[in-house]
């Protein structure tokens, strides 16, 4: 894999012909991508029936008046019982064990420490909790992109942390200069 084909930190936007209903109209942030495969988190499928404070209680983490609201999302179909905190970070050098740096100001952490920090009003300025993740084996994501399953592009804080989940798919396409009304569900070759 070359530097040009590394999609880490990019977003994937499901094309209208996406065959997997779990990813229909999804926007996915790629957290890691290499020749061994890819891992990402769905950005626009909230789990409103699951409260962050309830999850903290299940983990034995006490909450108090400083506990910040953190949106809980469906991160993908792989390991749906596992949590991933997607969050802002400062400059390089403040990473801790269990943290994967995705970009200059974005990381994903899987440790209990970040949950305890969020429960007590500390920690990153913006964060979301994803349950599960999207995963692809070697070459699988590239094949899905060639089959017109995904469009890749740049994302921003509003796509990652924003609350307009129903509008993220269209917003992500528009940010890439694509009019969603002009897309077809059929793939073709010239």
TrEMBL record:
GO terms for cellular component: cytosol. InterPro entries: AlgH-like (IPR003774). Transmembrane segments: none annotated. Pfam families: DUF179 (PF02622). It comes from the Bacteria. HAMAP family: UPF0301. Belongs to the UPF0301 (AlgH) family. This is UPF0301 protein CX676_12220. It comes from Paracoccus zhejiangensis.
């Amino acid at each position: 894999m070359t530097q040009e084909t590394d999609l880490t930190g990019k977003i994937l936007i499901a094309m209208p012909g996406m065959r997997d209903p779990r990813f229909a109209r999804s926007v996915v942030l790629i957290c890691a991508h290499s020749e061994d495969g890819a891992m990402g988190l769905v950005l626009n499928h909230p789990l409103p029936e699951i409260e962050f404070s309830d999850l903290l209680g299940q983990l034995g983490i006490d909450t108090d008046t400083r506990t910040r609201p953190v949106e809980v999302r469906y991160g993908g179909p792989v390991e749906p019982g596992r949590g991933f905190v997607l969050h802002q970070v400062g400059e390089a050098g403040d990473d801790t064990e269990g943290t994967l740096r995705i970009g200059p100001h974005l990381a994903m952490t899987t440790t209990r420490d970040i949950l305890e920090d969020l429960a007590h009003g500390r920690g990153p300025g913006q964060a979301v909790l994803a349950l599960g993740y999207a995963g692809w084996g070697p070459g699988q994501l590239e094949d899905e992109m060639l089959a017109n399953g995904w469009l890749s592009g740049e994302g921003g804080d509003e796509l990652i942390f924003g609350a307009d989940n129903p509008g993220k798919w269209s917003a992500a396409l528009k940010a890439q200069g694509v009019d969603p009304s002009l897309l077809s569900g059929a793939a073709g070759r010239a």
